Each structure stands twice: as C-alpha cells, then as structure tokens.
Amino acid sequence: MLRSIAFFSGAALMALEIVGSRVLAPYFGSSVFVWGSLIAVVLAALCLGAYTGGRLADRMPTGQPLAALMGMAGLMAIVMPWVAAAVNRAVFMMNLGPRGGPLLASIVLFTIPGVALGAVTPFVVRLLADRVDRIGGVAGTVSALSAAGSIAGTLGTAFYLIPAMGVRQILHLIGAVLLVLSAMALWCAHKGTAPDGDPP
User: Fold this and answer.
1) Which whole-number Å values give the CA distances from 78 to 108, 118, 171, in the listed order?
2) For the segment 14-44, what is each residue's pLDDT rounded down to a tens digit?
3) Are 112 and 76 in contact (CB under 8 A)?
4) What does the pLDDT look like over 85-116, one tens digit per residue?
5) Taking a C-beta distance cutoff of 8 angstroms, is the pair 115, 9 a contact?
6) How far apart are CA 200 and CA 188, in angstroms?
7) N or C: fewer beta carbons within 10 Å in the chain?
8) What is the pTM assigned to this prediction?
9) Given phi > 0 = left and psi -120 to 50 = alpha, else beta, which region is 192?
10) How far is CA 63 from CA 60, 137, 146, 147, in A?
C-alpha cells in the first residue's frame, strides 16, 4: 500500500500542476510566465516538503501523519475551484504585471498542497526501511515509483483528463484519490499495523 501511495501522490502532484495552468488561465493567460511560476512553485514546495517530511517522519514514523498530509492536500484540491477565482481576482487587482501576478497566485494556491505531497516520499521511505542496510534500495524504489506516478499524472491529465473533463471535475478527482489513500493509511494505522500491512 505504501508503494501505491508513493505512485499516486506523485501522479496527483503533477496532475495538480498541469490543471493549475487552467486554474490560472482566466486571469493570467497561459504564457511562459504562468508555466514558469507553476513549475517554480511546485519545485519549491517539493523541496520544502521533502525536508520537513523527512524530519517529521523521524519523529512520528506512523501512518497517521502520512494520512493527514494526503488528506489535507486532497481537501485543498476539492475546494480549489471555489477558492481559486477569489484568489486570482484579488491578485489580478494588485496589478503586479505578467510575472508577479501568476507567481503570487501560484504561491497562494499551490504551495500548501505541494508541500504536503512533497512530504509523502520521505514518509514512505521511513515506514518501509526496516533495516539500515536497505535504506538505499528502498529510497531508490520509492523515488522511482513517485517519478513514474508523476509521468502518468502528467500525460494522463494533459492527454486525457483535460480534453474529457472540466477543471472542477479534475480537481475533485485528484482530491478524491488523495482522500481514499489517506483513509487507507489511517485505517491501517488504527488497526495497529504499518501502512504496508507489516507489524510496526
């Protein structure tokens, strides 16, 4: 289950980034500044998430914090269609220009879910690595799964979801997937097992 969480959290993050261009487009267009802002904010969130997630995982190596992180990101994705319009409008009225506007809107809308999803990988590594001599292999496998999920999320969203669904429906789908994964991790934690089904 933890490996599935690594894969789908990576997919969700990239799906959120791709659909983010449509979230910003009504007010800021789809210029290179919009894409540059989205990419920079997501990468910064990944950096912060990996750092804070690793420290948190060492202090609380259980499924509950992992579930909370995914649940928070999922809820934010679900409410984003209602929040984004107000945020974009407020930022647009600041007249920050073609660079500052999309950058600030991206920071407000995507930093918190990006940090939460960025923290998933170190948590999964911590929960799977039961021996010191296996940490390298576990970290490599989890990173590969997260990257594979990111590829799937990017292509799936750009090639299939956006042509077939509206922005609101895609965000709700991302949120629903994250909430299901959160519930699974929380259920396993309450059952007294690690999220991969092994004894803690």
Assistant:
1) 16, 18, 6
2) 999 999 999 999 999 989 999 999 999 999 9
3) yes
4) 999 999 999 999 999 999 999 999 999 999 99
5) no
6) 11
7) C
8) 0.88
9) left
10) 9, 21, 18, 22
